[in-house]
Amino acid sequence: MILRFVILCALFLFIEFYSYQAFRTLIRVRWVLISYQVISFLLLAFIIYSFSQIDRSVGQTRQFMFTTGLMLLIYVPKIVLTLIMFGKDIFRIGASILNYFVYHAPRKEMMPDRRKFVSQIALGLAAVPFLSIIYGILEGKYNFKVIKQTVFFPDLPDAFDGFKITQISDVHSGSFDNPEKINYAIDLINQQESDLILFTGDIVNTHAKEMHPWLETFNRIKEYKYGKFAVLGNHDYGEYVTWPSEKEKDENFHQIKNLYGQIGFKLMLNEHTYIQKGDDKIALIGVENWGVNFKKAGDLNKASENVHQDDFKILMSHDPSHWDAEIKDHPKNFHLTFAGHTHGMQFGIEIPGYFKWSLAQYIYKQWAGLYENLGRYVYVNRGFGFHAYPGRVGIMPEITVIELKKGRNVA
């Protein structure tokens, strides 16, 4: 614990040192540089103090989200500055060695000076994440996008050709602070001409009471001809806080499960049902949360018991690591899996159809959008809400509409 603290302090000092070098190269006014140092120290002290006051019995609070946002706002740009300035110093050291051993330069000319334009470039690049994080907090977290995707299956029952499914995931209602924006998102959901809606977990951050102010809002989600179904996410189990007793934890979990019914969704707990359309049917299977690094309450075999090999199967499983670990190669051949969980880390770069990047991709093989393996698919929703960082940059909140079509994908 002490070693970890020492390493963390050394890292912050390293970042602060190189950030200061960028400013010092450009600004020579002594009182300005002293003011910068004082403000940096006070902000760091505030961040450390705020995080030290986290109450494990309460969980995420507005103060926690504010502090997380502030830390990212300050230190992501400073990390950019550090990488550029440190990289320049590596070059300067290399040049000084060359000057000394090859060109035999005088000692005072051996080390090249820091160039002003390097600091200008560094500060210009650092301004990009700084402004992006501010945008993400003020606007991005409620910049809802409807993403539509068509998926082809050669064995799709004829009656389901053109069948549309809306998906929402990761609501995290305890983070909301703008009823107007959430009502707008509900309107977007209702505008989609879908046959079925699926909710793939995380209705709250931790406590059932977080959803109580939003029950009326989410009850505005219209009825769907073929139903409204949901599964649990990892946050729905209340496992990220310290509870006074196991009884209170269990009661909270019971209340969270009831929340889904209170907004009109049938919660599926390792079970399945059949969706009948005309003379055809598809199996809808819902498992509890199962994640490689999170709670493993899901039981895929139990949920799909008595589902036939040749049934067309749609699966809801909150964590996409489940697809990679158990689902994609399962002998029952689950045709399409709906997942969420990753939020795309709420931070990344995405140019639809061309490019997407996020730190999430270094943790999850499937982290946003549609993925395929031998004709079986998983769709990972980018999330409806937000958690920890009170914003979104590049990876926007998502409402998904998947259309099932009979046939084969054209390469």
TrEMBL record:
Single GO MF descriptor: metal ion binding
Classification via Pfam families: Metallophos
Calcineurin-like phosphoesterase domain residues: 163-344
Cellular component terms per the entry's GO annotation: membrane
UniProt keyword Nucleus present: no
Top-level taxon in the UniProt lineage: Bacteria
Keywords: Hydrolase, Membrane, Metal-binding, Transmembrane, Transmembrane helix
SUPFAM superfamilies in alphabetical order: Metallo-dependent phosphatases
Keyword Transmembrane helix found: yes
Transmembrane segments: 29-52, 64-84, 117-138
UniProt cross-references to Gene3D superfamilies, sorted A to Z: 3.60.21.10
GO biological process: lipid A biosynthetic process
Protein name, per record: Metallophosphoesterase
Taxonomic source organism: Flavobacterium potami
